[in-house]
Amino acid sequence: MKSLVFGANGQVGQALLHSLAPLGAVVAATRDGELVGGGRCESVDLANGTGIGSLIERVRPDVVVNAAAYTAVDKAEQEPDLAFRINAEAPAAMARECQRLSIPLVHYSTDYVFDGRGHRPYTEADDTDPLGVYGESKRAGEVALEESGARYLVLRTAWVYGLHGHNFLKTMLRLGAERDELRIVADQVGSPTPAWLIADATARILDQGLKSSGVRHLTAQGQGSWFDFASAIMELAVASGRLARRPALVPIATSEYPTPAHRPAYSVLDTAGLRAEYGLELPEWRQALAATLA
Ligand SMILES: NC(=O)C1=CN([C@@H]2O[C@H](COP(=O)(O)OP(=O)(O)OC[C@H]3O[C@@H](n4cnc5c(N)ncnc54)[C@H](OP(=O)(O)O)[C@@H]3O)[C@@H](O)[C@H]2O)C=CC1
Ligand SMILES: Cc1cn([C@H]2C[C@H](O)[C@@H](COP(=O)(O)OP(=O)(O)O[C@H]3O[C@@H](C)C(=O)[C@@H](O)[C@H]3O)O2)c(=O)[nH]c1=O
């Protein structure tokens, strides 16, 4: 099976290069044709979608996996056009070409498509209502795939972290080394999910073949607040010697940490559908964090 991976330098993209390799050839595409780990690959700037269709046509993969996205949640409030070009128009262009060539398309979306007013895990049938530009642009990407007529799978995930790239784990390790005290929001609840888990699950799904088109939820199991996540990071980082000492962590309300974009208060995703359809077991988020740091 030959895969074409857009966004190969991102957190999920880098993990996909490893996870998809046992299934066959993996053709990587990045913005500038360079891989962060070294080496050249295909190049396409998704903000200017002209090269997308021609690249898919030239590579003729058995599956396209789009891990590229505009993920700067706060900055998106000032750059809505760019966020929509990358998160909605580029996946739409991929879907058009995939539909024309009968190639299945795997794409990722976010818990931030929900408004966070729920009190039980969101299912795929629940209504979306994003609070900010990033979530709106990601929802527009989901709709574009739904309407394309392509065979597709949108994997909605959440709170992605890893040892590569920009994420909350890396921010906490950096700030934890610099400061004696960190103030962390304790009233936003979700499911921290490592990039390797998303990539592994994608490979297990592709190994079986897409069983149906649609949106499915994919996160680590269980739930916690950003404060819980930070507390678990500090505990494991000190135990493993990554941090010399544990900074004091202060739980705060969202109102005490103002940001340009509003974020959902509760965005836990119900993954039962995906687990049943593909027979996947997903680890609890604290176990997944421990495995990542180990
Ligand atoms: N991060 C998170 O917490 C979450 C992410 N998701 C979704 O998961 C998917 C993967 O996210 P993640 O791996 O964290 O994202 P990253 O931000 O780590 O990576 C995104 C990649 O997209 C690339 N990209 C951005 N703009 C362009 C462009 N104009 N042309 C070409 N490439 C571009 C970036 O390239 P470059 O390196 O050159 O900037 C980067 O490598 C996305 O769909 C995201 O929305 C869902 C929930 C949570
Ligand atoms: C750095 C920091 C953040 N926070 C808060 C701000 C915010 O509410 C929360 C998370 O902050 P971040 O900006 O790191 O995370 P954020 O960019 O909101 O993360 C999101 O990214 C996009 C791409 C997604 O799709 C989401 O699933 C989610 O992972 O933590 C603190 O309370 N204290 C701190 O010191």
TrEMBL record:
Query: What GO molecular function annotations does the UniProt record carry, in alphabetical order?
Result: dTDP-4-dehydrorhamnose reductase activity
Q: NCBIfam families recorded for this chain?
A: rmlD (TIGR01214)
Q: Which residues form the RmlD-like substrate binding domain?
A: 1-293
Q: What is its EC number?
A: 1.1.1.133
- Do you know which InterPro entries this protein is assigned to? dTDP_dehydrorham_reduct, NAD(P)-bd_dom_sf, RmlD-like-bd
Annotated keywords:
NADP, Oxidoreductase
Task performed by this protein = Catalyzes the reduction of dTDP-6-deoxy-L-lyxo-4-hexulose to yield dTDP-L-rhamnose.
Recorded GO CC terms: cytosol
Q: What is this protein called?
A: dTDP-4-dehydrorhamnose reductase
**Keyword set includes Transit peptide:** no
Q: How is the cofactor bound?
A: Binds 1 Mg(2+) ion per monomer.
Regarding protein family, the annotation reads: Belongs to the dTDP-4-dehydrorhamnose reductase family.
Q: Name one GO biological process term.
A: O antigen biosynthetic process
Name the cofactor(s).
Answer: Mg(2+)
**Associated pathway:** Carbohydrate biosynthesis; dTDP-L-rhamnose biosynthesis
Enumerate the catalysed reactions: dTDP-beta-L-rhamnose + NADP(+) = dTDP-4-dehydro-beta-L-rhamnose + NADPH + H(+)
